[in-house]
Each structure stands twice: as structure tokens, then as C-alpha cells.
Amino acid sequence: xxxxxxxxxxxxxxxxxxxxxxxxxxxxxxxxxxxxxxxxxxxxxxxxxxxxxxxxxxxxxxxxxxxxxxxxxxxxxxxxxxxxxxxxxxxxxxxxxxxxxxxxxxxxxxxxxxxxxxxxxxxxxxxxxxxxxxxxxxxxxxxxxxxxxxxxxxxxxxxxxxxxxxxxxxxxxxxxxxxxxxxxxxxxxxxxxxxxxxxxxxxxxxxxxxxxxxxxxxxxxxxxxxxxxxxxxxxxxxxxxxxxxxxxxxxxxxxxxxxxxxxxxxxxxxxxxxxxxxxxxxxxxxxxxxxxxxxxxxxxxxxxxxxxxxxxxxxxxxxxxxxxxxxxxxxxxxxxxxxxxxxxxxxxxxxxxxxxxx
Length: 358
Ligand SMILES: Cc1ncc(COP(=O)(O)O)c(C=O)c1O
Hints:
Elements: E1 8-9, H1 15-18, H2 20-30, H3 43-55, E2 59-63, H4 66-81, E3 85-88, H5 93-97, H6 101-104, E4 109-112, H7 122-126, E5 134-138, H8 151-163, E6 167-172, H9 175-182, H10 186-191, E7 195-199, E8 210-214, H11 216-228, H12 237-249, H13 254-271, E9 275-277, E10 285-290, H14 294-308, E11 310-311, E12 317-318, E13 325-330, H15 340-357
Parallel strand pairs: 1-11, 3-4, 3-5, 5-6, 6-7
Antiparallel strand pairs: 2-8, 7-8, 9-10, 10-13, 12-13
Helix pairs in contact: 2-12, 3-12, 4-11, 9-13, 13-15, 14-15
The structure holds pyridoxal-5'-phosphate (PLP).
């Protein structure tokens, strides 16, 4: 992909990559001249305290990545319960995108519950038939276009974990995006779970990094594992500063991002060229399904980028049907720059190009 050609992008992540000067200026403006970079007043320690409070947990700990944070905490839950399995939806991030580090590095076993294309249900969990170390729930479910269970379903599912003597862990990479749907404080959502991980660079639009929150003794153990795994980096402060800026500025905007996502999805549905899932979106995130192959959509997207400087997505994903594909929309600061009708017109143009060339 030609990053230099991008003038406008619907893709929200990693503003440092796309607008480095804006991001660095924001960080400079935020950072007082006499900032301590190490110790109790350092940005990393402040971020950890702030997230422990916001998530209603005794302690929170910075990790360089969610990948490291979640594998670590699942290992701790396994060692404490003397069980090796964790239960999660078939399309969870750990199994799909982390080269199965939970098994390769930590000797854990993944037990899939439920159907690939629907949300987990209590019945799916009851059908599991073994007592796991932990239940992992992802809110919202990225691979399902940001679907969310109702609050009552969530409570019932976590209740199942308790009856099994299992820990409940929240993959809250996008808890910021999920919170307006539940309309409950972050601490109440996180409070259902024993441990929670949040991302500093998705909805918060920071640089990278993650925070794991939970009981003090669990986090103390996680700190030892973070060192063992090479994640105890003393100079994480730029990531922490970007995360703190995200907490100051992006958390409160998620409801507006969700509303814009709903409007964009409605414009796409009205146009008819694409199918939106879920419709309406529950979060700033949703999927757009196109009646063209991934290769044709990818080529059309590259051409539009080169000719017009407009980027609709990073990747056109495959669909079970070869002449269809889908892409993820996640409305953030970048996405607010596009009117709903404009997105619908761009998607129509993309499909027209793909049909002609494909
Ligand atoms: C739902 C979910 N969980 C975990 C992760 C892992 O986060 P990281 O990229 O910080 O390792 C991601 C990253 O995309 C994610 O989407």
C-alpha cells in the first residue's frame, strides 16, 4: 500500500503512522516541561492508576501489547485453578491472530464455544462439558462486526464461569467502543470480570500498548511474567502519554462515533450496493459486505488511493463465497471526516471499478 498517497482515510488506527507530526505535537503540548519519566509520577504510573480507577480494579499494569497481556493473564488463571483450558468464541483474537501463543508459549488449551458467525450464548457454554481455568469474552466481538451481547446475556455468561470455578476475563480491547451501548460506567462493565485488558491504540487512537487490570495479587504475578516475556520496558512513556491523551479526548467521543457509524451504515443500506452487518451497528465498528471478490476489491481500493488519495480500508477479507468480500469500518477521528453519503458514493465507485476490472 502506498502510505504516502493517502490524503483521507476511513481507517482509524495508528494516527502516528499516518499523521506523525500531529500526534507528536499533541504529545508535546500535553507533556509538562518538568515531567518525570520514571517513578510514581511518570506517565506510565499515572496511566496505570487512572485505568485502575476507571475500570474499578485494585491495580492495573502497562503491557507493550494486548497479545502479551492476555496470554499472561490466562496463564495465571490456569496456574491458580490447576486447569489448562480457556473457553472463548471460535473467532477470538488469541486463536485467530496470535499464532496460538497461548499453546506454544504457555501450554494452554483453547476450547471453542458457540458458532463462528453468531454471538456466544449461555447454552453454548453449558454444552462445553469441562471446567476451564477461564472464560474469555470479547466486547465488542470484532470478527462479528462489533456485535455485543445484551447486558443480561453477559451477566448470565459470566455467572456460568463462576459456577465452574473459572475466572472471567474480558478482552476489552474496544471497551471504549462498547460502553455507550451498555450505557453503564466502564467500572460496572469491567466489574463483571475478574480481569480485563484494554487497548491504548484502537478507540483511544494512541500509538500502541495495552493495560491489564485486576486484583492486586494477580497483577503482581502478571508483572513477573511481563519481565520474563521481555515486556518490562522502562521507556514505555511515549505510549503511556498517547494513551493518557486518548483517555482525555477519545473516551467521551465514542457515542458520537457510534452515531456516525449508524448514519454511514444507513446511507450504505439505502444505496443498496453493499450489505452492512450488524445493521444498525451497535458500536463505531461494523462490516461492509461487497458483491465482488477480495482481489478485485483490493485492486479497486489501490487504484482509488493512487488516483484520488482516498482510503476506504486496509484489507478486503475473504467470504465463504468467492465472488464476495467484506471490510471493517471503525469510525474514529478519521471517519468523522466523511459524510454518510460520501462513504456510500465511494463504496459504489469501488464496486463499479471492481466489477469492471474483476
Ligand atoms: C479483540 C482484540 N484483542 C486483542 C488484540 C491484541 O492487541 P495487540 O495488538 O496490542 O497485541 C487485538 C488487536 O487487534 C484485538 O482486536
